[in-house]
Amino acid sequence: MRAFLSGKTQQLVSRVLFHPVRPSAAVRWRAAQVRLLCSSASDEEKHRPSMLRHLTSKIKATGPITVAEYMREVLTNPVTGYYVKNDMLGPDGDFITSPEISQIFGELLGVWIISEWMGAGGPKQLQLVELGPGKGSLAADVLRVFNQLKSVLGVASVSLHLVEVSPVLSRIQAQNLTGTQNQEADSEDEPVYRRGETSTGLPVSWYRRLDDVPAGFSIFLAHEFFDALPVHKFQRTDKGWREVLVDIDPEKPGQLRFVVAPSPTLASSTYVQADEKRHHVEVCAEGGVIVQQLARRITEDGGAALIADYGHDGTKTDTFRGFKDHQLHHVLASPGSADLTADVDFSYLRRVAGGDVACVGPVTQKLFLKNMGIDTRLQVLLRSCSDASTREQLMNSYDMLTNPSKMGERFHFFSLLHPSRIAKPAKTTVGMKLEKKSPAPLPVAGFDDLSFS
């Protein structure tokens, strides 16, 4: 069904679409999906890294560990975790994300945020909360849109809140967003471990946990965040559902392997739905908890959440994979040296979000960006650009983001909204006259087919 933008929202979008910006080159990205249920160390990986020593000691002491525990240790261990000690983003890292490919991506998400703020009636407070903000590229592009549309935001109090567990990335974010205008907290126990201010005077705060972000009307962004959260893996067997665990290979003591638990675990008895039809299932319980936190905050304080990630709607099975130097990497080989990820099951997120919020999507990235006006934005930039190499970069970036065989259909967008945001207008009868009590809600940008004509 085609929905049309209100006059005010259409002007908002147009003002951003026609603002000149810098182009950026398209680069390689992590896209392949493979089945990885075994691992083998290459010759150069025979020397056991400290993370492997830590894991093997743990397994020897307590027995095989869950895949979720393995992911948690490998990615966020405070001493040797991949996210804690590495700068893994960009051409020199292990993967690259959409905001690094083209700033158009972040600009369109900035328009989405303001559209939802307007749809909520333009509250006096707007907290932008990003989970796992990478290098800060997405936040920077969104804040540039905020600055362009400051007349629309009016006197609203705007602030940026970043939930980041990586000390390395938090320092990069601070440099990119605030320059030298930031300071670390005196104590590690402080909920806000870093504070800063952008060049336009907008306050920025860093947190390790979503719970520490203050209450208030908030728009939450989670771009390539949920796919890195730990997942439990389950296999259907003749004896019922069994959890997949990580164990030491008895024939190769310096390597790890997957095994199937001989009996039900608490997780396999709890997380697998009774009517599940698949034979292999991944469940991100930690992601479920975060979605429930988001749903509660949206219900109590208003706002919305936009989740963009690799994902599916309850159809895929084994998606657990690793990335190193922009290439696929065995998930159990040389733990701590590569990124680990699993596709987001949006059907699970929808189920655990509950009935107090409205869930929209998932829709493909191609559809979302086209609904947001990426084609119009690209044409404006091409018309104003005479440099052949820059034009080629613009086209390559657009292709990377929207091509179905690249990012266009591998990434999906999913949103949590306050129910009042999309509720049908209430009507009452006064005498013989039918009166509308409230205006029709604005269409949900990105998820509805919007007209820019």
UniProtKB/TrEMBL annotation:
The subcellular location is:
Mitochondrion
Q: Which enzyme type, at the first EC level?
A: transferase
Instruction: Extract the InterPro entries matched here.
Output: NDUFAF7 (IPR003788), NDUFAF7_sf (IPR038375), SAM-dependent_MTases_sf (IPR029063)
- Keyword Transferase belongs to the record: yes
Question: What GO terms describe the biological role, i.e. biological process, of this protein?
Answer: methylation; mitochondrial respiratory chain complex I assembly
Tell me the domain of life: Eukaryota
Location of region: Disordered: 178-198
Give the enzyme's EC designation. 2.1.1.320
Query: What Pfam families does UniProt report for this protein, alphabetically?
Result: Methyltransf_28
Q: Keywords assigned by UniProt?
A: Methyltransferase, Mitochondrion, Transferase, Transit peptide
Q: Name one GO cellular component term.
A: mitochondrion
What catalytic reaction does the record list? L-arginyl-[protein] + 2 S-adenosyl-L-methionine = N(omega),N(omega)'-dimethyl-L-arginyl-[protein] + 2 S-adenosyl-L-homocysteine + 2 H(+)
Q: Which Gene Ontology molecular function entries are recorded, alphabetically?
A: protein-arginine omega-N symmetric methyltransferase activity
Q: Which family does it belong to?
A: Belongs to the NDUFAF7 family.
Q: What does this protein do?
A: Arginine methyltransferase involved in the assembly or stability of mitochondrial NADH:ubiquinone oxidoreductase complex (complex I). Acts by mediating symmetric dimethylation of 'Arg-118' of NDUFS2 after it assembles into the complex I, stabilizing the early intermediate complex.
Q: Which protein are we looking at?
A: Protein arginine methyltransferase NDUFAF7
Please give the organism: Scomber scombrus
